[in-house]
Specification:
Blueprint: E1 2-8, H1 19-26, E2 30-35, H2 41-54, E3 60-64, H3 75-97, E4 103-108, H4 118-129, E5 133-138, H5 143-151, E6 163-166, E7 180-184, E8 199-205, E9 213-218, H6 219-237, E10 242-248
Parallel strand pairs: 1-4, 1-5, 2-3, 2-4, 6-7
Antiparallel strand pairs: 7-10, 8-9, 8-10
The protein binds S-adenosylmethionine.
GO biological process, one term: methylation
InterPro entries: 4pyrrol_Mease, 4pyrrol_Methylase_sf, 4pyrrole_Mease_sub1, 4pyrrole_Mease_sub2, CobF
Pfam family, one: TP_methylase
Length: 250
């Protein structure tokens, strides 16, 4: 049976790769890269660097996500069609680049359990394409851990809950969940909405990379300035990834 290694590579630095990740990668006959159309040149370069360093010569097989109709007449049917097409492309790539008992690696940014669809896509592929395989997941360092380490802070205060959400969900997040709340996938500056005079923010962009930028302070004081900084950084690099922790300090 084939083994699919879903390997968390950490969010940012090649030094985040664990020994377990390196051993999974070294065992692979090929690396399958799911190109969801948002892959940035710097991220692709990091993936190539990791393969060149730890498994030189291992081919990277890019599977481009098939196009999807975002406003279909029949939404469910279109999603089913899209999943099936993606599963077929992926299974074809795996079958033609590895033996029946071979090893295939998927390199996942950060950790595979956090806002990543690789495991879901593999599940579709197993169900729809009958690909017999064992899935081995290697945990990776998430952007959240890189953020808290960079600022030298705890993720929670004593026995306090932690809420993790996306910027899209932030406006509907309750005041109690916002007391200690990590926000990811923010295309704008979600922190500038609905803050109180006690809302403190620890913010980080390009975490773990040489371009890392950190800011911290009360949102009322630094919120607008960080929003402006984010625009400038996006213009400078052509893309940006940021993560932040909002906490009520009252
Ligand atoms: C699709 S999610 C992937 C999360 C990833 N699986 C993880 O474990 O961190 C992408 C989001 O993660 C966060 N992120 C990932 N890498 C980051 C980095 N190096 N610096 C800042 N934020 C990052 C951003 O919020 C970004 O919008």
């Amino acid at each position: 049976m084939r083994t699919l290694h879903v390997i968390g590579i950490g969010a940012g630095s090649p030094e985040f790769l664990t020994l377990q990740a390196i051993s999974g990668l070294s065992a692979a006959d090929c690396v399958v890269a799911l190109d969801k159309g948002d892959a940035k040149a710097d991220l692709l370069a990091l993936r190539q660097h990791i393969v060149d360093t730890h498994a030189p010569g291992t081919p990277i097989v890019a599977v481009v996500d098939p196009p999807r109709d975002r406003n279909p007449h029949d939404y469910d049917a279109e999603v089913r069609r899209w999943h099936a097409e993606r599963a077929r492309l992926l299974a074809d790539a795996i079958r033609s680049n590895s033996a029946d008992d071979g090893h295939v690696a998927f390199l996942v940014w950060g950790d595979p359990s956090l806002y990543d669809s690789t495991l879901r896509i593999i599940e579709h592929m197993k169900n729809l394409e009958n690909l017999e395989c064992e899935v081995v997941v290697t945990p990776g360092i998430t952007a959240i851990q890189v953020l808290t380490a960079a600022h030298g802070i705890l993720l929670n205060r004593i026995s306090e809950a932690i809420h993790i959400t996306t910027a899209r969900k932030l406006p509907e997040t309750s005041a109690s969940d916002r007391r200690n709340c990590v926000v990811m996938l923010d295309g704008g500056a979600g922190w500038t909405q609905d803050f109180t005079e006690h809302t403190f923010m620890w913010w980080g962009a390009f975490l773990g990379t040489p371009q890392q930028v950190l800011r911290k302070g009360y949102v009322k004081d630094i919120g607008e300035e960080v929003a402006e900084l984010k625009k400038q950084l996006r213009a400078e690099h052509g893309w940006i990834m940021d993560t932040y922790l909002l906490r009520e300090l009252d």
